[in-house]
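Re-run with default settings, no changes from the original entry. Doing this only to confirm the output is reproducible before filing.
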Amino acid sequence: MRDLPEVWTHRTAHREWYGALEDTQDERARAIDAVRAHRKAGLARALHVAWVLTRTDFRARYRAQALGVAWSLVSPLVMMAVLSLVFTRVFHASTEHFPIFLLIGVLCWDWISNGITAATHALVNNADVIKRTVFARQVLPMAAILSYGVNFAIASSMLLVFIPIFPDAFRLSPALLLLPVLLGLLVLLIVGIGFATSVLNVIYRDVAYLVNTGLLLLYWLTPVIYPLEVISQPYRSVLAWNPMGGILLGIRGAIMDGSYPDLHAWAAMILPTAAILGVGWLIFKRYERLVLDYV
């Protein structure tokens, strides 16, 4: 019997490629190109789905409201006005330019709180979409978070209005170039938490209540309405490793003081954020296969 030629095999989740070893170089190159094209097309589809879901979620939020997106501006302004009055007139807060200090904190916290809450409910609220279509399900919590990122971007434009009112509260400096980096870290942090809470909430519906309680606790552990300097040691050193607080301090420093985070501050932001993102991704992939059984 004539010996059959040896062949090489390349397998993916969707198909297999075969070829004779003497044609290895050409066939392998074509197979690698096909795999790369498939991955690129899959990424393009995922980005398109994320964009559609983000746009739909943002539009649906204000569809039946007379003021529409203006509520994104009203809520933080009211919070800033009330808290500024309480802390400056009643408690005599000594923080310089406290209204702007507070507004930055409120804007960031609104995105954190609303984004995590929306991501937690993303899979449950889109049960029909999950059952009827096939797509990367991690896009759902990401789209929920990004839709509130649009709110954050619109509401943050109010800071420009306050420049003539509190000119000394703002510092034009190269530190402002760090804002995209700091906001990127904030997105990754929220996404990491959203990955974990979204898939766990499908299986254990109590997770939504735990998230609400956890956010309330985090609000007071994050320097949203108070400067970190008012906390005594050793508690201040512990709170400094809260990545939400570190990112918020970095954003305030870049806008109000033109300052840069030091190496310890960068470590306190990047390391916990990377750990939370990694753990959140692993939890999502671990329980993703059970989503169809519970939604």
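The longest strand covers residues 7-11. The mean pLDDT is 83.
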